Amino acid sequence: MHILIANNIYPPIMAGGAELIVAELSERLVQRGHKVTVVSTCSPESEPYPVEIRNGVEVIRFFPKNLYWHWERGNRRGYEKALWHLRDAWNKDAGARFKKIIAEYKPDILHTHLIDGMSAVLWRRAKQAGIPVVHTAHDYHLLCPRALLLNKSLKICETPEAFCRLYRKWHIHTTRDIDLFCSPSQFLINKHLEAGLVAERTAVVRNGITLPANIEKNYDKASILKFLFAARLTVEKGCEVLLEALKLLPESLQFEFSIAGKGVYADKFIELSKNDQRIKYLGYISGAEKDAIFRKNDWLLIPSLWYENAPVVIVEAAAYKMGIIGSNIGAIPEFVEHEKTGLLFEPGNPVALADAIMRAVNDKEILRNLTKFTPRILSNSSIDNMVDGYLKHYESLRYNK
Q1: Domains of the chain: residue spans and CATH
Q2: Are 259 and 280 a contacting pair, CB within 8 Å?
C-alpha cells in the first residue's frame, strides 16, 4: 500500500510530540513493506527543496505561498497573523502543488496530521482524486487560531471572538472531506463533535512510542524522591503555577526537583534554582541525556492550564515507572488514574499542586503500587499497536471507498 502522509513539519525539524509520532508511524509502515511519502513544508529560501529519503521514507517539502513560513511565526504582529490565517484557510498554492504530487505518486490513502501552513485544501484535492482521507488531530487547530482553546489572557476560552467564531465555522465546514477523524484521546474528539465536526467516522488511536527497556526502581529504600518537569516553558504548560507551588513548599521538605525545557520561563526557573538548592534547571534535554534523567526521577509533573490532548510524556513517564502529578484537565484524566498511576489536582491552583507534591514526598505507597496500574497506560501505547490501528483503518477505507 502507498500511504501519503502530510504534516507541516518533519524531522529533523521538530516542535513537539506530533512530529515524533508522524516520523515513528512513517518509518514503521516502511519497515512493514509499505511505501510512504511524506509531504511537509520548508522556508521560502529553501525552495526548491530536493526530495530526500529519511530512514526509508520519501520526504517532499515545499513552501505554501503565504506571508511567512509558519515555523517562523514567532513575534509577528496581530494583523500579519490574521492575514496569514486568512490565506491559510484555503491555500490555493498548496492545493496546486498537492494536486501534482497526487497525480505523480498515486497514493492509496492520504493521512494528514498538522495541516496549518498547508490548509484543508489537501483533503479536497485527495477527495477529488478518489483517495480516502484520514486525519489525526493532535491539537485544536480546527477550532482555534492558537490551536490551544485559550484566549488572549491564556485562560480557557469560553466565548470566542468574532474572528475566532468565523475561523471555527469555516474549518469545521472543511471536515466534510474527511472520511475518518482520529485522535489519541476521546476528549479531543468530543470537543470537535461539540463544535459540529462532520467527518463520516471517528476513532481513538493512541500515540505509540519506543518504550525503554530494563527500567528497575526500588521505592522501598529510604531515598530522597526526585521530581521532573519536562515541557515547553510557557504559560499554558503551567509554569507560573509550578513556580508558585515550589515557593510554597516547606524548607524542611526533602526532595530534588529538575526543570527540563526551554522557553520564556527559563530565567525564572534559573533564578529560583539559585535560591533553592533542591531545584535544578537542566535546559533542553534529548537522546541519551533525556533517557538518563527519566531513569533517575520518580515523579513527573504536568501542571497544564490548557486542554492537553495526549501528551507523549505521560506514556514515557509510565514506561520509566514514574508517578504522574497532573492537572485534572483535558485528556490527562484519560491516562492518569488518581491515586493509582498518579495524583490529579485542580488546574491553575498552586496550593493544590504544592499539596500533591508534599503528599508524594511523604507517601510512597502510590509509587510502590505503580506496577499494578501502569500496564493500562502502556498496553495501547506501543508503536506496533499504533501502526496496527492505523493499518486496520487504512484497509477498511481503501476497500470500502
Answers
A1: 2-208+382-399 (3.40.50.2000), 226-378 (3.40.50.2000)
A2: yes
